[in-house]
Every structure is written in C-alpha cells, then in structure tokens.
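Weekly modeling sync, notes
Attendees: S.R. (lead), two postdocs, one rotation student

Agenda item 3: backlog of single-chain predictions. S.R. asked that every request posted to the team notebook include the full sequence so nobody has to chase files. The rotation student volunteered to paste the first one in as an example of the format we agreed on. Action items at the bottom.

Example entry:
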Amino acid sequence: MNVFKALYCNQYYELKPKGKEAAARTNGTRLLAVGIALNIITVVIFMMVFSEDFTDAFGDLITDIFGRRSGRSVGKVVALIPFLISLPLIRYTLGKESNYNALIAEFESLSAEEQKKVSNKGLYYFIISMGAICLGVVLIFIFLA
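Predicted structure, as returned to the notebook:
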C-alpha cells in the first residue's frame, strides 16, 4: 500500500475508535492535499536553493504577478496554489467514494498489527513532508539570505 493510501487508512484507524469514521475520508483528502502541496513547495524550495537561475526566474515570476508587494499575502497565495491544484485531483481520484470504500475494505481485511503498520506509514509520510519543508526553509535562510 502506498503512502497516499496509507494516509487515508491512518485517518480511518485514528477516527474509527472515536466513532467518527465518516469524517476519515474528508480528513484524509485534506491531509493528503496538504501533504502533496508541502511536497511541491519543498521541491520548489530545493530548486531555489540549488539553482541560482531558478531562483532568479521564480523571483521574476512572483514580481510579474504581484508587483512589488511582498510578505504574508504573497506567501499565502503562492502556498495556496499547490493545495488548490492537488485537492480536486485527490478528491476525484483516490478520494472518490468507491475508491475509498475499496481501500477501507482492503485495510479492514488486514490483521491488527498490519493495520497499525499501514497507519503509521501514512502518519510518517505526513510528518516527513512537514520536516522536509522545514529543512527547505532553513536552507533558504542559510544559502539565500
């Protein structure tokens, strides 16, 4: 089972004992969209750190779109774009109800030990995605500041 499916299973595994398994699909879709958006932003950050040409081109693109404005509002818009791209893609592929139900049926057929492993795999994916973007931000301050 790949990490994307494992993240859905993680939400189901965490919410089922609380009686909130109906919210697991929505939470899984949102968390997966955030995770993929973080991955996209991380790739862009690493490209900026290791390629001066990319940094210049990206800076010019942001300036062309937003003008001389900078700061929090531009950062929010730039971060929101990968999320808004990934959310519908996930919702209408992996997050479709039929796909989700098949995934959960497969997950339920696993032993309790295997369910825990799959759940942890999804959780680790999300934590590593957050850690990678933090590392990217630190590298920006080191190399581009």
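Discussion: group reviewed the output briefly. The two ends are 40 Å apart (CA to CA).
Action items: rotation student to repeat for the remaining queue; S.R. to check formatting next week.
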